[in-house]
Amino acid sequence: MAREALGLLEEGGLTAARAAALFNIGSVAHRRAAGSSAAEGGAAEGEAGAGIAGSEARSGTAEGAAGSAGGVEGQQAWAVECLRLSRRLWIELGDVEGQLAASENLAIALQGTREGLEEAEELIAEALEYHRWSGDDSLRAQSATNLAVVSLRLGKPELAVELCREALPLRPIEQDPVGWAFTAANLALALTRVDGNARTLGEAVETYRLVLPLLESAREDYCRTLLDLAAEVRTGRQGQTLATVFGDPADLRILRLMDVNPAAFGLPGPALELREVFRGPPSGEEEALLLEAVAAAEAGLTTADAVRRGPLAESVARATDRLHGSSERTVRTLQRLCGLVDPRITPGPALEITQLLAAVHAELGRWPQARDAYEECLTIQELMLSRAGSSEERLRLLAARPALARYAAYALVRCGAARAAAELLERTRMRGFGPGPVPITVSFPLAYAVSVPFGSAVLLLRGDRLDVFENELTSAAVFAMFHHLADPGQGLVSAQQEDLEPTDAVRRIAGPLGRMLQPVVDTLLRDGEDRLTIVPTGPATLYPWAAAEVVDPATGAPGPLGDVIVLSLAPSAAMAELSRQRARNAGPGSAVIFADPVRGDASPLPGTRAEAAEVEGSFGGRARVLLADEATKEALLRELPGCRYAHLACHGSNDWTEFASMRLLLTGGDVTLDDLRALPPLGARLVFLSACQTGQADLRGLSDDAIGLPFALLTAGAAAVVSTLWPVHDRVTALFAGCFYRELAAMRRRGEPEDVALALQRSRRWLRTGRGFADPYFWAGFVLHGS
């Protein structure tokens, strides 16, 4: 109907009536789209600090139909199209007021994306400048408040504070109570983002107390700010108490970690002083703020619609957890809140509340209830993923709760549902990038390794058989083996962060790893099996599996796992099976070697020339060798799709906290994960990444997806990738690589299939026993991904 009316107006040419009609149609379409988004749990989800809902658009007077654009996105696009055209027509007609009205409504309709926000900022700033010049204080205050909302969404809280302080005196509470409330609420919100200390949070709370009777939509931010202020009060009290105990200003972050994980400091247990400070009940002031947050949120819950109910319930959940901890009272409250929140409308709060409930059940040892809650968490997470508008948003959602599937799987194990746990782990592997799930029946021994705060489990699959081995090794104990804060050299990660050789750290982790895997070894060897593919989850990606200290059942002698079991890793059972197929089907092809690239930002690698010579010799001089200026990014991306073997002796860059930073450093540029994933399908039998720490993966953002360089190459089509967990001396690497390729060459000469895993095992043993490099630091860092 609206489109037909607009068509009739178009026949009349450039008229004010047409401009006004466009304006009114666009405004109504935007309001309808926004309402639909809220009903569907889209736009209403928002982010904390995005600005108080209901920023003031000049929405016009028309109540006519906005057209029948399909879906929320269609209506929003139709609104933007109409408002853009309306604005242009007002400009051509010379009607400044019409232009500004269209500008501000267009600005609000554009705020669904970063680019739209930036355009909205320009449009509202244009209107604000005009109102400053014209002297219309009412419109000036409105524009300043709307621009403050956009500034908050763009991460500019300081500017938002300035704008709100400009607008507030222009709309006295006696004359414009609702307008004053909008501006005051956004000022309060901006203050919490500028400097979230107790003083500014306290000022914000006082402002919200004045605003709430006038503006119900401010209740959610009021409750959040009360919780933030309670946390600041708690932190301040802890700092004062610990300063008194220790006699100097305390680093709360370090002391809190010392309480949670004393092993990371080489301590047998937490100090009583720390336990009392960090785990004691809330103080009087903190408790009062938490109770105020609960009361305010509960009052809103009685009248809130389904959209606003979610954030309010989340505030009650957070406050209750702090007030009562892992208790029956907390369980009852969280269960009630789960019933109030519809995950189809507000999935974010629903997921937060349900995960809190799952964690409390787990801490109380109620594993069936924890299992049910974790499975509900995964259902909500899948709903959110299905609504993700882009791959970037999907990755962000996964990174927000990377360990959820691992915790759910462990709960299933504790309930005796090991098969369901294995299926869950496989179903949720590689959700950020990889192929879809496949049945997990495998014809070779494969083990999922899981560590959570409550312990570890290894799920061993062999055909239709599934064995489960539980262990006391917790994720906290693993953290302590990775990060030794008193002596960094004792931690597998902290040693590398300090540019120390992780010699002691590798030996330190070998014992616990061996105890976790000993029953797996016993089972495999008893049944005549000597191979194992491990699918690590979370921190297990960085374990030096080959160094795990086990006892050989045949001899009773202790030794490294890599001596008695032929090991490989895979990001999933599906990828393990696929890599075996690729290995069997790999056709003939060339070998290419990259070494000693020229970089202005990294040291030369002259030792890699000897390594390249060792590798070239194993191919009888028939490999293509690219050194120095020839070892470029462009050459690698050109050569990889057509080669059978690729050996890359170069620098690597890694970050355990961000997979996007992982790359290979070659002459003229860096090869990133995106570069590798964008390649045509590879046919490579083997890619050897002889660069520092290329076997590592993101442990924070997507910790259960094993995202790293080996993962990228496997998903690009390689059958096998050899990489390193830590830097090793050039000479040792050259010796190891030479032996490894000679083993493969001997297999080819004998007409045997190239067994990469076996060649790796033999090379590790040769280096350890025949060359005087017995310490696992020298050989346990070389790992195989794939087959």
Automatic annotation (TrEMBL):
A matching Pfam family: CHAT
Residue span, CHAT domain: 515-787
Biased composition annotated in UniProt, kind: Low complexity: 53-66
Chain residue ranges for the region called Disordered: 50-70
PANTHER family to which the protein is assigned, alphabetical: RAPSYN-RELATED, TETRATRICOPEPTIDE REPEAT PROTEIN 28
Protein name, per record: CHAT domain-containing protein
Record organism: Paractinoplanes brasiliensis
